[in-house]
Specification:
The complex is a heterodimer. By secondary structure, chain A is mainly α. In chain A, 84% of the residues lie in helices and 0% in strands. About 2% of the residues of chain B have low confidence. The chains are: A mainly alpha, B mainly alpha.
Chain lengths: 223, 248
């Protein structure tokens, strides 16, 4: 086989392997909640599921498309199939690929880069899995401690902890975008208290407002 | 509460998650072998391929520990097996928690609160989290082949890093919007008509303060290794703060 045939064969194999395994992995992932449902003899709330999915979809489907378009050129074919399945794309897979690209001195868009990025992402995903397995084995004996009543406030406030930390990071990064949505959402929740329990609904206008402000600032070269 | 936690931490659930993750690991091994062999076939230096493997493994260790801290943070409400699964595939801590909160409210709860969670609500939340994250996978299944062909004909367009478009800012803006909605609701809760509940805002401020220290050390003192831990460590510190405040 000459070089072109090897490259064609490699690309075709990755696409076939990638598509088949992603379809199978999706089926496996979807089956997990259903198995829990069957094992425990409970039914999920259909209206809750549809409501939740619409809200999540409005935020995350456009985000998924943007991430797919932006990150795929950096990840390559094999890297993209593996990264979008194993997650932690921005905080782990992209830096790993960039690091390997530096080490191997490969040029983006070449077969060498494809190979290096696929190897990097595959190794990274396996190492993460192993580290988390080791961690989970250590967490399991700690279950009685983690389920202690005294720790209840910690786990009941895990979402405020996330958004406090993320808020600082993103507000400092983009104060011009942040100020108006933060002010509007705060005033809305102060003067219309019923909105406090509807944060999942508020996310949509708040996200749209931030996107709109961001777009205007971008167009005016103010970002 | 204990009944719920026992159900979501059932041994059978660990086995199911282990099965799914084994499948995904096998997939990674197949990609790795195919790429390694092709690399050798086209004449790449075996030393470079081996070095890539070692450096990728080393590079991943620290961020992986940070993901593990995320599993601990998430496990208190969603149980260890599901948190283990969710943070091993597709998502990230911020996605999982945000979607879990949206799904919990859609399932009729006030939020992701242990006091209110039931197995029924958990299954609904798990379904929303699973289906909601499939966007990237669907893009790969249906569009990656065509998109990669376009990229191969114009490889130089890859440099979106050096010439950012609004796509890069859009994700940041979307996260700013998400954070604004949540922080706004915590501010609203502090007022009498919102229930005078100061705890969420205090916890958010504590997390922000710790994150501020991390940002200072990363950006001003060039301690870049801390980047991997800043989010999970800020969250865990703020969660510990919630326990202390509750004791006062």
């Amino acid at each position: 086989m000459n070089r072109n045939q090897i490259i064609d064969n490699y690309n075709n194999t990755l696409h076939l392997l990638g598509r088949v395994t992603l379809v199978l992995a999706s089926i496996l992932l979807i089956s997990v909640p259903f198995i829990v449902s069957i094992v425990n003899g409970v039914q999920p709330s259909l209206s809750g599921f549809i409501n939740g999915l619409i809200k999540v979809g409005m935020i995350y489907i456009p985000m998924s498309i943007v991430e797919f378009l932006i990150y795929t050129p950096m990840l390559g074919v094999g890297g993209a199939y593996l990264s979008f399945l194993t997650g932690n794309v921005t905080n782990m897979k992209i830096p790993v690929v960039m690091n390997s690209k530096e080490i191997a001195q490969t040029e983006s868009g070449t077969i060498e880069h494809e190979i290096i990025s696929t190897i990097s992402v595959a190794v990274s995903a396996m190492v993460t899995t192993l580290v988390i397995v080791a961690g989970v084995l250590m967490i399991v004996p700690l279950q009685p401690v983690l389920q202690n009543e005294a720790l209840l406030p910690a786990f009941n406030n895990v979402v405020p902890a996330l958004f406090g930390a993320l808020g600082l990071k993103y507000f400092v990064k983009s104060p011009k975008i942040a100020i108006i949505p933060l002010l509007v959402m705060s005033l809305l929740c102060i003067f219309v208290p019923s909105m406090i329990s509807q944060t999942s609904v508020l996310l949509i206008p708040s996200g749209a407002l931030a996107l709109g402000i961001g777009f205007i600032l971008f167009k005016k070269n103010l970002l | 509460m204990n009944q719920y936690l026992n159900a979501v931490n059932a041994p059978v659930f660990y086995l199911i998650v282990a099965g799914v993750l084994t499948f995904i690991t096998i997939m990674c091994v197949l990609f790795l072998i195919k790429s390694y062999k092709t690399g050798l076939q086209i004449g790449m230096d075996e030393k470079v391929l081996k070095k890539t493997i070692v450096s990728s493994a080393m590079f991943t260790l620290l961020p992986s520990i940070s993901i593990l801290l995320g599993v601990i943070a998430l496990s208190g409400t969603l149980g260890v097996p599901f948190s283990w699964l969710r943070l091993s595939v597709i998502g990230s801590l911020q996605y999982e928690l945000n979607v879990a909160e949206i799904a919990a409210q859609s399932a009729g709860l006030s939020g992701l609160s242990l006091n209110e969670l039931t197995v029924e609500a958990f299954v609904t939340i798990a379904l929303v989290m699973t289906f909601g994250i499939l966007g990237g996978i669907m893009c790969c299944i249906f569009f990656l082949k065509g998109y990669s062909k376009k990229l191969q004909t114009k490889p130089k367009q890859e440099n979106s890093e050096s010439k950012p478009n609004f796509g890069a800012h859009a994700t940041t803006a979307m996260f700013v919007g998400l954070c604004a909605a949540f922080i706004g609701s915590y501010i609203g809760k502090c007022f009498p008509q919102g229930g005078s509940d100061y705890m969420p805002l205090l916890v958010a401020l504590a997390a922000a303060a710790v994150m501020g220290v991390f940002e200072y050390l990363i950006n001003k003192k060039n301690m870049n290794a801390l980047e991997n831990f800043s989010l999970a460590a800020s969250m865990l510190a703020a969660m510990a703060f919630a326990v202390i405040v509750n004791m006062l």
